[in-house]
Write a structure and sequence with these properties.
CATH class of the largest domain: Alpha Beta
Strand content: 15-25%
Helix content: 25-40%
Largest sheet: 10 strands, mixed
CATH superfamily of the largest domain: HUPs
Structural class: alpha/beta
CATH topology of the largest domain: Rossmann fold
Length: 250
């Protein structure tokens, strides 16, 4: 990987999961990791406590992954906005989330959803779950403008993890959407095992069901008719009901 994994750190259990996930993936694909703690001036920040949480996370990361390049940054500002604007290009922003289980939109706000809408990079949202024994990558293919990018990213991740790739399309049929995605994935990572699945279930339910026992879910952010980024109801429901690390491709 040419970019860096930029991980939000606050000392919480979801944050520790995010750090562990980013370090494991970086150790596989050759990326580097930058741990970031943000002191928000609007919520009585404790700079010393933030620095301590950052130092603890870096120490644990280096101990678990000797030789991995791990950097630290202590920033200030509104947390979600500061994280959303940190990174560019091939970087992947990584955050932890405590939102697991089926809420079906009953929760109206989401820190991850806000960042997903505004970040300039791909975003990985990691639930507070132990997924180290899981195998496989799932890609949500919707026929939209990000379908090619999703298929390519999912294929690369499947190749790196030496894992099978499952392409899932739910809802209204879009002709040869899955066939095109499968061809894209094969061209990106020849030799990986690829399966395709269509579903008549609600898209978020179909994706979450497929991701339940797998190591990674890859989805697109979505866009409107003008090409501007939007956060659709499918991605919103996925983020509120996470059951696997989820990579949102820009």
């Amino acid at each position: 990987m040419s970019g860096a994994y930029i991980v939000g750190v606050d000392g919480s259990a979801p944050s520790r999961r995010a750090v562990g996930w980013a370090c494991r993936i970086a150790s596989i694909d050759g990326g580097q990791v930058t741990l970031v703690h943000v002191n928000d001036p609007t919520v009585a920040p404790d700079r010393a406590r933030g620095a301590s949480a950052l130092a603890d996370a870096a120490r644990e990361a280096r101990a678990a992954h000797p030789g991995l390049a791990v950097h630290e940054e202590l920033l200030g500002g509104p947390v979600w906005r500061t994280l959303a604007t940190r990174g560019s290009g091939d970087d992947v922003l990584v955050i932890g989330s405590h939102k697991t289980g089926y809420l079906h939109g009953r929760v109206t706000g989401s820190f991850a959803a806000r960042i997903a809408l505004h970040t300039r990079t791909s975003l990985a949202v990691v639930p507070d779950l132990d997924v180290r024994s899981r195998v496989g990558v799932v890609a949500g293919i919707d026929g939209g403008p990000t379908a090619t990018a999703v298929a390519e990213a999912a294929a690369r991740r499947a190749h790196e993890l030496v894992a099978p790739l499952l392409l899932v399309h739910a809802g209204t049929t879009h002709g040869d959407t899955l066939a095109v995605a499968a061809a894209t994935a094969r061209a990106t990572a020849p030799g990986i095992e690829i399966q395709s699945r269509t579903s008549t279930r609600l898209p978020a339910d179909a994706l979450l069901d497929a991701a339940r026992s797998r190591a990674l879910l890859v989805v697109g952010q979505g866009s409107d008719s003008s090409g501007d980024a939007v956060l659709g109801t499918v991605l919103h429901d996925v983020l509120l009901n996470l059951n696997a690390p989820t990579l949102i491709v820009r």
